[in-house]
């Protein structure tokens, strides 16, 4: 905790490390109250650096002894300034021996070495290794590690670290040891150890080159009935990376370890991935379809990092998207390939677009807006964002759209050929893509440089006589903090033209036939393309498959949208047309809601929804997405001044109206999409459950005895968590008299399952029927615990971020609750606190009365004496002009 003004770090200030580290030998005497760490490393002056001092970072550790080439250094031999330890006058080559002490059981930040349920874990990305030992803790310092772990055998029977197990044995006095060696050079952020009482599911798996690898999933005793899906996902991931990218597992052993105390989803430590239990543990009784999907994606993501992140890593943290954007793109493609069908692919793509709109576009338009490759930061942990991850993945996807799947693969091959074993930049990746394909991708750099979501508009003109269709695109990008003006982006726009029957027209541009979907490349602020041989006035389907992360200001008429919603061959744009039909109406309703007591919805819209709901030729998963309304957050993003209550009333009205007017069809779909027989998380079955449960939720948006009975019956008979949770939510939202008893029964039954208890809290926190008094009551529940990030998020963050109408209560009580808990959490875990702090990002867009309350709450946090850099950066940027 620092009280002085935090330092801003700039990308342009990068200098190479003064010394490189060759080998690191770490010795751990593990004790929760006092762990002694011995670090012996060989270092060598970096010929690329002008600097002569050895620079080591250390944080929250006690320095016991420091030796250079065997000589004990005295205090005058080095300087400590904050977290930086410098040793001047060091020789070209040296052996450093450093002894430090840390206190894992008091480490509530979950960064560095900490205990969770009595077990030891580490988390080193981004800058946690310095909380374990003094080290040049920056990703461009790559070294080989050998690790000796010593601990009490009874309490910590399992001792794990990166790479291969060299030897293990007894030490006497009840202690034992294990020695691990990682054959690959790695940056310190990929170091990991686990010392724990755990059990594992294991399997040997034949790799493409014929080697056998040992795969293990480690969990607490009693959870071995929940590891199958993670193991299967790991095997699928290994296979996929071999087949799609020719990338093999490079170790003989690959371990996944689950912990219940974790700041994020999971961590790709070399050979020893550490996971939040949320992304490992699943069986039908406790996990929903969404949970199963999450596990598959995160297991794949961490595994894929082994090449994109570990073998080739980041030169500095500004390059974070080099590994994250690319790895998210890879896990997205994996998920799509796992489903296999083309609508299945589209369904995953729609999920991705949904995430962008729900979270990334708002980030890009708010006070924390930053480029995919940021120019500066105060606290790097604040930059593990949807922009770096999801927009970063969109940027990678655009290479594939521009170069084709094969061209992209060529670029990947060249990237690994050039950079295996190196710490590189986003420019290096772009250069590999360009060189492998003989393309100039200079302008494409702007996707890395410029923050903000580009806005795209088009005007089209059909010339019947000439049979041409001209379409002019205009692109612009709004200012973001520090970037008042933007230059045009290189934007791939996939486009198709629909005829009157709804069929795709063959496309001809400049005399060249381009199938039925053409990828236009926009590079200027204004650009025109002309299609020839166009037999009739078409309806353009623009930005197919969401070919670029932009906002398309469409200008479509209702009848164009209905045409696209009925016929577009591109399922993503078909869905998009439905979202636009709904959004237009939601915005109108939002304007009317505060004044009118009689809202209404036109037949045209209801009929379109009815056709979609009952179109048996379409996958249930797709129909569910097409019937889901834009969220309250998305509606709010379209408004100049947000009245959350009006938005909520408008959306609730629409849901209830659909529920009432499509009642018989919804009931029929509810029955038609049952999934009898044993539960399976596959996409087909999950899609049916999703549509069935959406029907249940619409029916209960206009509840009566029959709809409530339906939900209650499902709640009492469900044999899987997807159906159980969906029906319980429906009862809560319908304010059913039976909801409370069902909530109690749910808790009773699942109180031993931490992840289900999280759901129990989250379900209540997200319900518009839960007010601040109820939240405070839940905080006093014996199962609530602010120290556990999953639990804190399930109640506090869910309330502040997923219950807009209650959070934004006119008296400001939600904001005071926010300020109080950001402050409390900050003293325990700055990373978790800073994420919660971002609930206020968009405060300037609310009504003046709400703004005033929000500002007060922000100032209350900003005025705290002791505040982490993490939270300070967020609230300072929120309050800045
Ligand atoms: N690199 C990890 C991933 O994307 C995430 C990560 C970064 C992380 N920092 C962390 C996880 C801190 C836990 C704690 O997979
Ligand atoms: Zn990642």
Question: Can you give a write-up of this model?
Answer:
The protein is α+β, with helices and mostly antiparallel strands and 881 residues long. It is built from 26 helices and 33 strands. The strands form nine sheets. It has an eight-stranded mixed beta sheet with strand order 6-5-9-3-2-12-15-14, with no helix packed on it. A five-stranded mixed beta sheet has the order 17-18-19-21-20, covered by helices on one side. A hairpin with a 5-residue loop joins strand 2 (19-29) and strand 3 (35-45). Helix 5 (386-419) packs across helix 6, helix 23 runs parallel beside helix 25 (848-862) and helix 24 packs parallel to helix 26 (869-879). The longest helix has 34 residues, at 386-419. The radius of gyration is 28 Å and the shape is globular. It starts with 8 loop residues before the first strand and ends with a helix. The mean pLDDT is 98. The structure holds tryptophan and zinc ion (ZN).
The rough form would be described as globular
The portion of residues forming beta strands comes to 15-25%
The Rg value, from CA coordinates, equals 28 Å
By helix and strand content, what is the structural category? alpha+beta
For the biggest sheet, the summary is: 8 strands, mixed
Could you list the spans in which at least 5 consecutive residues all have pLDDT below 50?
none
State the distance separating the first and last CA atoms.
Answer: 26 Å
Q: Which cofactor or ligand species appear?
A: tryptophan, zinc ion
The percent range for helix content is 40-55%
Q: Taking all residues together, what is the mean pLDDT?
A: 98
Q: How many beta-strand runs?
A: 33
Strand order of the largest sheet: 6-5-9-3-2-12-15-14
Number of DSSP helices?
A: 26
Pfam families: DUF3458, DUF3458_C, Peptidase_M1, Peptidase_M1_N
Protein name: Aminopeptidase N
Domain Peptidase M1 membrane alanine aminopeptidase: 229-447
Family: Belongs to the peptidase M1 family.
